[in-house]
């Protein structure tokens, strides 16, 4: 019966090749999103003809994975690999000694390891399937060698299936005009995944920077020289904060409340400040930032956050709005304790002491702050390299300055330094 092998009938949108004159098709997806099946089916579509012995569009394919074992075990013999996807009358044969597949019509697919880029020097191809390129240690060298070999046929193409990571070669491929991209989250393939797996990974990683690429298939672009790194944030992540001595909510209001305005950064943080200052720890509890909100809307959101977490103080930057910022807050709640802060130094100068506390493993995040963490990893010593304004980071810095930097300065010296 042919229907099980008609992939166009069963495939999800992100698994089907886009139309157009592209050279590289990048399928970025979360774990279990169906990337391997899409790559295997694309190879089939290239090498198979209308009948089992008829030639296809391609006759010489390169299969490139991190290791030869992974090419064989995942791309060729895996549950979603080429052999599992091929109908009996078109199923290729694996020649182990030559590390290649050979189809009934004579088409071949040669296996290569990214650990040995030089093995790609010499052979030539009219197509290639590249798997998990973002985790290759020699990704740049391997990709470059593959490009020199894609020189057969009228229009050699390459399919790249990968979980996204912030690596230069992947970003360079994505930036090319001849590259097309499809993406999907893990849930896109939920019908073929264990529900217990979905429940567990979502409970653990939803809303984290690790979860964004691994579950949502989103590439997180960390800037060179960033003050914060993904590994730093993930290492310090906790499921629950301990009993806290102080909790504050910090607000970085937008200049205006128009639809085109930046978001209003609202961050909740708490600290344990018992004992010597070097033993203090702070915990980022929530990001309650709101987008393009009116002054009244962001003030209400900040006060709701205070009530939710039992915060003792609202810290508000007043550089842009001056006294009006506090007046807006007072209109919502006349009795809310507000501390107005004025930035006398640039964003980077204020952020660096806070980033140093992260490096000392004295600051921890709870789950659910991916957008805040995206901004953090785009803040460099030269400035913010993300889109828009780092409103969430500004609010974070004000909260942690209030909890850790200013009290520490008082603890060490009777004269508090200007922030």
Report what the structure shows.
With 419 residues, the chain is an alpha/beta fold. The protein has two domains: 3-214, P-loop containing nucleotide triphosphate hydrolases (Rossmann fold); 230-412, Nucleotidyltransferase, domain 5 (2-Layer Sandwich). The chain is 33% helix and 19% strand. The protein contains 14 helices and 16 strands. It has helices spanning 7-10, 35-47, 68-76, 82-85, 139-149, 168-175, 195-205, 211-214, 230-235, 295-309, 323-332, 347-359, 370-376, 391-412, and strands at residues 24-29, 60-65, 93-95, 100-102, 108-113, 127-131, 157-162, 179-184, 246-252, 265-272, 281-287, 313-317, 338-341, 363-365, 379-380, 383-384. The protein has an eight-stranded mixed beta sheet with strand order 3-4-5-2-6-7-1-8, with helices on both faces. Strand 10 and strand 11 (281-287) form a beta hairpin. Helix 10 crosses helix 11, helix 12 (347-359) packs across helix 14 (391-412) and helix 13 (370-376) crosses helix 14 (391-412).
């Amino acid at each position: 019966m042919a229907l099980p092998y008609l992939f166009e009938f069963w495939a999800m949108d992100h698994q089907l090749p886009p139309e157009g004159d592209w050279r590289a098709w990048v399928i970025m997806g979360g774990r279990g999103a169906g990337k391997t099946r899409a790559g295997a089916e694309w190879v089939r579509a290239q090498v198979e003809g209308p009948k089992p012995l008829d030639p296809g569009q391609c006759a010489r394919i390169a299969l490139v994975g991190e290791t030869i074992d992974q090419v064989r075990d995942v791309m060729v013999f895996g549950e979603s690999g080429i052999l599992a996807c091929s109908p009996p009358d078109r199923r290729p044969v694996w020649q182990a000694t030559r590390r290649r597949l050979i189809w009934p019509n004579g088409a071949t697919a040669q296996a290569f390891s990214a650990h040995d880029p030089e093995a790609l020097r010499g052979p030539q191809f009219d197509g290639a399937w590249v798997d998990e390129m973002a985790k290759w240690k020699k990704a740049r060298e391997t990709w470059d060698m593959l490009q020199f070999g894609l020189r057969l046929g009228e229009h050699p193409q390459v399919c790249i299936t990968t979980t996204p990571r912030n690596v230069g070669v992947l970003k360079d491929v994505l930036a090319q005009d001849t590259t097309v991209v499809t993406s999907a989250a893990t849930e896109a393939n939920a019908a073929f995944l264990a529900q217990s797996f979905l429940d567990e990974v979502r409970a653990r990683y939803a809303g984290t920077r690790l979860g964004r690429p691994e579950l949502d298939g989103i590439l997180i672009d960390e800037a060179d020289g960033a003050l914060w790194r993904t590994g730093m944030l993930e290492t310090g992540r906790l499921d629950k904060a301990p009993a806290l001595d102080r909790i504050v909510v910090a607000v970085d209001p937008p200049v205006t409340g128009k639809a085109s305005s930046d978001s209003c950064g609202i961050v909740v943080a708490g600290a344990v400040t018992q004992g010597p200052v070097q033993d203090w720890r702070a915990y980022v509890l929530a990001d309650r930032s709101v987008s393009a909100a009116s002054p009244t809307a962001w003030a209400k959101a900040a006060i709701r956050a205070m009530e939710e977490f039992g915060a003792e103080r609202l810290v508000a930057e007043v550089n842009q709005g001056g006294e009006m910022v506090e007046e807006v807050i007072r209109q919502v709640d006349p009795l809310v304790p507000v501390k107005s802060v004025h930035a006398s130094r640039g964003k980077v100068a204020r952020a660096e002491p806070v980033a140093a506390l992260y490096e000392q493993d004295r600051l921890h995040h709870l789950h659910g702050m991916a957008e805040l963490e995206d901004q953090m990893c785009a803040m460099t010593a030269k400035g913010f390299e993300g889109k828009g304004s780092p409103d969430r980071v500004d609010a974070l810095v004000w909260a942690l300055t209030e909890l850790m930097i200013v009290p520490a300065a008082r603890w060490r010296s009777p004269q508090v330094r200007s922030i």
